[in-house]
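Design a sequence for this backbone.
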């Protein structure tokens, strides 16, 4: 018995050895990766080029056992085992807010490397999150037979919302209705029954049949849901089935489902539904295309396309996230515009860098350039000058180091007499003690309709035709070209403030031009508007408030001019948001609103007040931030000014020495 058992084990061992040897030889015969890996679990594949592989016993194989390939092929090029690694593994969590997403499945993304005929185990965890978003849409048959059900649904709307609140707080309701195609034989063809297909015993509101109406988008407003269901009118048709599938096909696209929500459609009817092919009874042979055809929240292709099939509804639900043609076009156009803007920004940045490099080269060349003093008569020693137009010279100042020689240059500005050159008229001041220059006698060649060029003491040149000239005040009125074609400018210039004037062209005719017409009514209207504006500005001034409060008031008034006013020493915006002294962000509050019977209006008003308060807090924070920056700049300017005064004192002491 023992000998028999020993022989059986020996035979099995020999068979196993023969199988292994055969498998190894078969591994060497494979020439592709797929055939190699699918042959046996003992075979592995090397993806290295044949010329780069090391030889084993004078030969090499791409397909071999893992032990043999580790001798001839780098480890990272050997394909042998299946494995996976996690790309995204967010921890399971609940939705903190209505906008945040709950995580119910972990991991979220996994990359798997799997060899042929092999399997890989991936651990996955799931937990149902609390307050997971739920979108519930009521799609109701509003034929006359559903009248009592409509009233019950309106009554149970708030009860339903309350029960759903115990399951999730992130819950939204929507409402839509359907009847059937408004074509015979689905409705009565008689004219008196098409517009009002309800029974004659019913005196309530009744409309003609329709395919689908979207009454209310998904919202958490339960009162609005009750109102829409209660006010929706009923209709009627003559056959038993209804057009519910038309409504479901349109509701899938138009409702506005959230991507991360649990989506529910409550289909409420008391009869069956038509499906694909029933439209041929009414002569409608065009099949349903599965697209959205809604205008003003009503299905427009009810009498143009056949009913959808169950398979179309299933396919629509499975690929609901596929973009429509319109969305695809919008995305493509937006991408092209974004790419164009990006290219424009890159071009602008490159142009700016090029301009800066060219400007830097120009600055370097300008610093290297030196003028010969004996050749260029315009050369002056590089000094910092300050010119006061009301005085007769230039004041030279410079910040110098100690023990440095200082030379002060004073230039006497003497203007030529106008008798020296009949075309260039200048003035000279004989009174050197007066800080304001005295006017020289008016020129006798400054005549009306002559073209003159005036250069002011600020080096501002004006060229125009003389309209009027007053000898007593030395005032000349010039008619000049405007900044735009077709416009003109009138300038009144005092010749005392001109360092030279040149007669460009003598007049051929000194006849005065006719005065421009004056619209008295327009002037009065402008005066009235200006007075009203000034009175309004005066009403914004509150002498009892602090300077800080007045500055904050002016800052907010720039963007909210129509809704801001003073309430004693408080700033009141929109009659609800109040800022009290000392006018910080924490002193912004909302006045208690008056009691209102309309809950919807009260909620809307409260939301608007909260938005206004948030905006005002941002404005107040920005105001105080600007005040802090202004204070720091003032302190730095004061320190700089003190350093400059100390430096000037050192220069004065050095020059005195």
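Sequence:
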């Amino acid at each position: 018995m023992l000998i028999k058992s020993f022989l059986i084990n020996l035979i099995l061992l020999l068979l196993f050895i023969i199988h292994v040897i055969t498998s190894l030889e078969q591994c060497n015969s494979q020439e592709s990766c797929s055939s190699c890996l699918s042959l046996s679990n003992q075979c592995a594949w090397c993806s290295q080029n044949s010329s780069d592989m090391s030889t084993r016993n004078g030969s090499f194989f791409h397909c071999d056992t893992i032990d043999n390939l580790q001798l001839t092929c780098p480890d990272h090029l050997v394909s042998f085992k299946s494995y996976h690694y996690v790309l995204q593994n967010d921890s399971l969590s609940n939705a903190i807010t209505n906008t945040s997403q709950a995580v119910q499945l972990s991991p979220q993304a996994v990359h798997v490397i799997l060899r042929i005929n092999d399997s890989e185990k991936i651990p996955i965890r799931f937990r149902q999150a609390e307050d997971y978003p739920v979108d519930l849409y009521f799609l109701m048959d509003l034929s006359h037979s559903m009248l009592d059900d409509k009233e019950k649904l309106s009554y149970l709307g708030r009860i339903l919302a309350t029960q759903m609140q115990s399951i999730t707080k992130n819950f939204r309701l929507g409402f839509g209705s359907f009847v059937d195609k408004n074509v015979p034989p689905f409705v009565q063809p008689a004219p008196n029954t098409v517009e009002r297909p309800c029974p004659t015993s019913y005196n309530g509101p009744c409309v003609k049949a329709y395919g689908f109406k979207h009454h209310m988008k998904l919202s958490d407003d339960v009162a609005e849901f009750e109102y829409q269901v209660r006010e929706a009118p009923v209709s009627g048709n003559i056959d038993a089935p209804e057009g519910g599938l038309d409504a479901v096909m349109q509701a899938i696209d138009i409702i506005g489902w959230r991507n991360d929500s649990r989506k529910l459609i409550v289909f409420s009817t008391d009869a069956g539904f038509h499906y694909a092919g029933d439209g041929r009874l009414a002569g409608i042979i065009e099949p349903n295309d599965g697209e959205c055809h809604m205008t003003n929240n009503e299905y427009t292709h009810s009498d143009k396309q056949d009913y959808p099939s169950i398979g179309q509804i299933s396919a629509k639900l499975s690929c609901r996230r596929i973009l429509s043609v319109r969305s695809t076009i919008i995305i493509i156009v937006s991408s092209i515009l974004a790419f164009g803007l990006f290219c424009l920004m890159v071009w602008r940045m490159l142009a700016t860098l090029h301009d800066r490099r060219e400007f830097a080269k120009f600055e370097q060349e300008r610093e290297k350039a030196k003028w010969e003093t004996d050749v260029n008569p315009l050369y002056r020693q590089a000094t910092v000058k300050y010119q006061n137009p009301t005085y007769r010279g230039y004041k030279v100042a410079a910040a110098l180091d100690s023990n440095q020689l200082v030379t002060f240059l004073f230039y006497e500005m003497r203007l030529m007499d106008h008798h020296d050159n009949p075309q260039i008229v200048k003035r000279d001041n004989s009174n050197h003690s007066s800080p304001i220059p005295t006017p020289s006698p008016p020129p006798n060649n400054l005549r009306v309709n002559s073209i003159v060029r005036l250069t002011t003491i600020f080096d501002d040149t004006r060229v125009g035709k003389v309209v009027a000239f007053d000898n007593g005040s030395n005032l000349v009125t010039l008619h000049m070209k405007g900044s735009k074609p077709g416009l003109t400018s009138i300038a009144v210039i005092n010749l005392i403030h001109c360092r030279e004037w040149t007669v460009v062209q003598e007049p051929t005719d000194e006849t005065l031009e006719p005065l421009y017409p004056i619209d008295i009514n327009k002037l009065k209207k402008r005066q009235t508007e200006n007075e009203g504006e000034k009175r309004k500005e005066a009403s914004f001034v509150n002498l009892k408030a602090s300077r800080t409060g007045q500055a904050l008031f002016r800052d907010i008034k720039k963007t909210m001019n129509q809704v801001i006013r003073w309430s004693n020493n408080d700033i009141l915006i929109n009659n609800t948001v109040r800022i009290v002294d000392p006018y910080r962000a924490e002193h912004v509050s909302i006045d208690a609103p008056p009691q209102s019977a309309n809950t919807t209006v009260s909620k809307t008003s409260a939301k608007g007040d909260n938005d206004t308060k948030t905006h005002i807090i941002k404005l107040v924070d920005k105001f105080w931030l600007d005040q802090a920056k202004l204070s720091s700049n003032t302190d730095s300017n004061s320190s700089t000014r003190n350093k400059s005064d100390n430096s000037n004192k050192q220069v004065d002491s050095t020059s005195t020495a």
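Confidence is low (pLDDT under 50) at residues 378-441, 651-657.
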